[in-house]
């Protein structure tokens, strides 16, 4: 929803990380080292909220069947080696441990122009069971602070919209 608002497009694409820890390999949970991969999500936001969310959920579940496929190999096979396929990413993960008391709130913890990954804008979400922390990171040499703050505001409004829609069970359009 945020990308749709920022780009004025109903059909958006972004990358997200998958842990790779749920592969059907004996002992995968004990492997030391990274197994992460980047998956690509394309979301068409035209239509009723419930239908868009259900289709997005189905697609997400289907994507995990491809988490062992190298995005770099796909790029190479398409003749796109070195090309940037998308400039935004989202990471959602469980907190390893939390020292703060949870209040069941969603908090946008920071908007930072110190992103060290290759994406112009990244959203990192950490879940600890009682609270959700969100960070918006951006490359300050590509994305200005005003745009980053606008993206953070739109993100908060989008989450509020989704939560209100879920509570009211109304059929609303996402865009």
UniProtKB/TrEMBL annotation:
Q: Which InterPro entries match?
A: CAT-like_dom_sf, Condensation_dom
Where would one find coiled-coil regions in this protein?
none
What the entry lists under SUPFAM superfamilies is as follows:
CoA-dependent acyltransferases (SSF52777)
Domain Condensation, which positions? 1-143
Keyword set for this entry?
Ligase
PANTHER family referenced in this protein's UniProt entry, alphabetically: NONRIBOSOMAL PEPTIDE SYNTHASE ATNA-RELATED, NONRIBOSOMAL PEPTIDE SYNTHETASE
Q: Please state what the protein is called.
A: Condensation domain-containing protein
Q: Which organism is it from?
A: Bionectria ochroleuca (Gliocladium roseum)
